[in-house]
Amino acid sequence: MNQPLLRADGLACVRGGRLVFEGVSFALAPGGALLLMGPNGAGKSSLLRMLAGFLPPSAGALWWHGRPALADAAEHRARLHLIGHSNAIKGALTARENLRFAVAIAGAPISRVGGALEGFELTPLADVPAAYLSAGQQRRLALARLLAAARPLWLLDEPDAGLDAANRAHLTRAVAAHREQGGIAVIATHRDLGLEAPQVLELAA
Question: Is the pTM of this model over 0.85?
């Protein structure tokens, strides 16, 4: 059996004096996927931010390859993509320029931009400023960053929001390909994304 790539032991989150969740534990080997389920306010987004290193655990520990994952925040963030509710794209830049900026920051080859655009049906919109894209198109551009710069850990918060059926299928295929290459994904979602044999973690409000 593969050893865990990412492991959480007894994570807890307290925000504004309120216990959001506690006792969250899981282990993901290469190729694994974890779906975070539960009602709004259960802490799915907070857990993703905690896994990304943006929110310190109130209790518990997070491990990467058996070492403390958050000991070096910059090193940890360099191995992950976090797609949150905000698409975090630059409206003044075109779709292509947004992805070129992303690969430059990640030190990835510029040659990946074309495939990333194609992966979410953005090639015809490549030279349109992102500010003029629809909400669904902007979401697709945010997701295209996953393809533009390869990183082993994907943290996705309702990634299919605003997507049509065709692009939900593209997302499912992208996650499957990422897992086949040994990557892992933690995904907060309210719906079945069609992933093969994911773990499921239910958070209660």
Answer: yes
